[in-house]
Amino acid sequence: MLDVNFFDELKIGLATADDIHNWSYGEVKKPETINYRTLKPEKDGLFCEKIFGPTRDWECYCGKYKRVRFKGIICERCGVEVTKAKVRRERMGHIELAAPVTHIWYFKGVPSRLGYLLDLAPKDLEKIIYFAAYVITSVDDELRHNELSTLEAEMEVEKKAIADQRDADLNERQQKLEADLAELEAEGAKADVRRKVRDGGDREMKRMRDAAQRELDALEELWDKFVKLSPGDLIIDEKLYHQLQDRYGEYFTGAMGAEAIKKLLETFDIDAEAESLRETIRSGKGQKKLRALKRLKVVAAFQQSGNSPLGMVLDAVPVIPPELRPMVQLDGGRFATSDLNDLYRRVINRNNRLKRLIDLGAPEIIVNNEKRMLQESVDALFDNGRRGRPVTGPGNRPLKSLSDLLKGKQGRFRQNLLGKRVDYSGRSVIVVGPQLKLHQCGLPKLMALELFKPFVMKRLVDLNQAQNIKSAKRMVERQRPAVWDVLEEVIAEHPVLLNRAPTLHRLGIQAFEPQLVEGKAIQLHPLVCEAFNADFDGDQMAVHLPLSAEAQAEARILMLSSNNILSPASGRPLAMPRLDMVTGLYYLTTLKEGAAGEYTPATDDDIERGVYSSPAEAIMAVDRGALTVQSRIKVRLTDQRPPADIEAEQFPDGWKFGQPWDVVTTLGRVLFNELLPVEYAYVDEQMPKKRQAAIINDLAERYPMIVVAQTVDKLKDVGFYWATRSGVTVSMADVLVPPAKAEILERYEERADGLERKFQRGALTPDERRDALVEIWKQATEEVGKAMEDYYPDDNPITMIPKSGATGNMTQVRNLSGMKGLVTNPKGEFIPRPIKSSFREGLTVAEYFINTHGARKGLADTALRTADSGYLTRRLVDVSQDVIVRETDCGTERGINVLLGEKQPDGSIIRDAHVETSAYARTLAADAVD
Q1: Is the distance from CB of 74 to CB of 352 less than 8 angstroms?
Q2: Could you tell me if residue 572 is inside a domain?
């Protein structure tokens, strides 16, 4: 018996008929499932107790033996073994097929293993298997060679007889024609009548010649086919095959269907074929060598694995245990059944019908048709829909075959074995939690109570607030006030895991310390959204609870979000300000010329103005309205490190903490620098996103992770605050159309007209005209975009958002207020007429149409690309399962050459523009020296 519960390793191979019989506990002969009156399984049916075991523990079908004391006895009346009903999950049956069938996986897969093994094209293989063509399975070359001259002589005699008969018939017809013409002439018939009779005679003689020629050609074709006949040859013409069979049947054998494939496999010598293919690869070239390589891959796989190729042709079909394809009664007396039962039923019905037809001695054509139908039903059982239209059930739904139960996201492996549902987990919609620290998440009270229920119950008993676990459970379920205090205590420093699907990299699951929040939504820290690729438009996340001390320690040390600031892909920080935070920090660090309270140096006529002894004094001035955070000021700082140039100028011996120094800057930049660690040199510049990222990257390299986490949290808070204070928003009044646009377009329209005239004169080909038009309108779009950027003031919120790096880019702003420009068609080619309008002005009907044309394809492609990339990731993970990184540098000198910089004529080196992505966070194979 096949024991499925205890094993050390799993090897998947081809099952031979003997294997299938060994696994089986009996043959399933009837398509019936259960008796609808008694609701008991039918004998010899798909749920038969004799084959698969009893439906009730320790009880046979007829009821003669009941109780465990009869364990192991096989009832002599009903033949059912007295055992546990659990065996109906393990015991298999089989269906003995009246004709062999091929396994669809091996002939219809890509590449077709059966096709490569037998050197047959998949189309030809399909014709053989589905009874559309005959294949020659063996040829007696010796007998044919010995008797070839005799057979040829016989063929020549037959040809001569046909030719002689043709000549005799023609001669006779010619004489009759001449006699008829002579008779007509004697009777004085008109020339018209005589011509008609002659033409009729000539036509009949031509027909006789053609008929004889066809017969001779058929004999010639038959002979040529017979002389060149070799195993594996296909004969699609049934008439030709039967003629060959009738004349030369003793020299060859042929067949169609899986029987033919079985005969070819029986005579197939794997070792000899492998050697022959290796020889072809050594000496062959081009396509021949390529095909031999592909075939050898399959042949060698069979050779090494020890699988018998005959396993690809089945004489028996295994029937899986009935508990794995159950049948359950619904309310109202109807039954719901697994699709597999329908597919097995089709196989049994067709198999029984084929047996009956063979017993009756039905004509070959009827038997072959039934064999084809049996092959199709077994195909549908193994992999429904792989070939042709799938077998459908009620409501035109394709039935789920054995392959469908295993493959894909809903299959046995991914759904049940790899992706089990677990206790101590929950899921909910996420909302932003801007008040949280980086290592925290907001957990709804009700969810936390359910997740931590056993911990709360135990703690209630420990504190003597409940006498036993039962009363503690009742307290929790009734949500008594004491429960919430205990819950606060229990969740303190007990991390939870948050996961957002799809988990595409390791940061898709991170640990957080839960904070109890009202409502039913999980609150997520804004800075971890990047790692999770989360947004708040309805995304959901799952919560998991690490239970053991080891799991909690692992979550806290390895998975806590504040310890996972760097991206595993690039080594750069992922938790950094984005969107509103970027805009806020950009606004805060912007210097606005001519703003209120601006610093002016001392002159002969006036003293220095806009000078402050400390940041606190400057803040007071802002509160009074005498100053803005963007005004240039001179301020004295003591607890921030000066930048290198000021340190060299003001402190030749080096700056010490607490020493005062003066800087001309803005209050906003002073406030920004207060967020950075004290030892970090003062940064006196505007802060777009790239600059913010560079600072956090620098912090991550120089400071402990805890400092980085605290810094990004401060940046988040200040970013949000100043984004609110800045009042940056988008309104129609902010979308400004450049006045120069009309003149620019007019100029380029003239150039396009000139090009059109050239084309009309024949000076340009259509392709040249198209390319030139595309180039003209690209230039026009760029010029309109430049005019638009120049026209926008610096403090315009619409340009501030892309300039700060928060989101979007200037192309989108150009679409809004400049012009859309050239768009593509679904083939990806530029349409040579541009969209001259901007979205602010509104598009014409024609412009609207050509704009949606390519955009629709873009959306469809995005959906398809997502699916493809997901599948590619799975395959890459599969092939790299056993690749483990054990050390940072393995010491090899093999590597990839990367350009770090280029030496200039003056001796200086200019760094390569792409060095950040090409060389950063990689290990050098050899020292980089000048």
Answers
A1: no
A2: no
Answer yes or no: do 114 and 260 share one domain: yes
Cα gap 390→303, rounded to integer Å: 34
754's tokens: 């000139």
pTM for this model (two decimals): 0.75
pLDDT at 906: 86
391 Cβ contact partners less than 8 Å away, ≥ 6 residues apart: 342, 343, 346, 380, 384, 398, 399
CATH number at residue 545: 2.40.40.20
Between 184 and 458, the more confident residue is 458
Q: Whose CA is closest to 534, among 616, 431, 614? A: 431
| CA 497, chain centre distance (Å) | 26
Q: Are residues 713 and 591 in the same domain?
A: yes
Pull the structure tokens for residue 524.
Answer: 């997520």
- Helix, strand or coil for residue 405? helix
Q: Considering 420, 443, 468, which residue would you say is the last residue of a domain? A: 420
Tell me the C-alpha distance between 487 and 257, whole Å. Answer: 70
Task: Tell me the CB-side half-sphere exposure of residue 753, using CA atoms within 13 A.
Answer: 6
Asked whether 100 and 263 are in contact (CB, 8 A), the reply is: no
Work out how many domains the chain is built from and give that number: 5
Q: pLDDT per residue over 194-253, tens digit each?
A: 888 888 888 999 999 999 999 999 999 999 989 998 888 899 999 999 999 999 989 999
Mean pLDDT of 435-456: 97
Q: How does pLDDT run across 138-179, given as a tens digit for each residue?
A: 999 899 889 989 999 999 999 999 999 999 999 998 998 888
Q: Which domain holds residue 619?
A: 580-726
Which candidate, 581, 617, 647, places its Cα nearest to that of 438?
581
End-to-end alpha-carbon separation of the chain, Å?
72
How far is 711 from 695, CA to CA, in rounded Å?
11
The residue among 116, 106, 113 whose CA lies nearest residue 378 is 106
Element (H, E) at 327: strand 327-329
Q: 396 and 442: one domain? A: no
Distance CA 271, CA 287 (A): 23
696 and 780 part of one domain: no
Nearest Cα to 527, choosing from 491, 566, 568, 570? 566
Indicate the SS3 state at residue 359.
Answer: helix
Does 407 share its domain with 334? yes
Do 224 and 307 fall into the same domain? no
**What DSSP string runs through 233-278?**
-EE--HHHHHHHHHHHGGGEEEE-SHHHHHHHHHT--HHHHHHHHH
744 and 821 share a domain? yes
Alpha carbon 93 to chain centroid, angstroms = 36
Residue type for 673, please? N
- Asked whether the beta carbons of 674 and 614 are under 8 A apart, the reply is no
Q: Are 309 and 115 a contacting pair, CB within 8 Å?
A: no
How would DSSP label each residue in 188-237? T--HHHHHHHHHHHHHHHHHHHHHHHHHHHHHHHHHHHHHH--TT-EE--
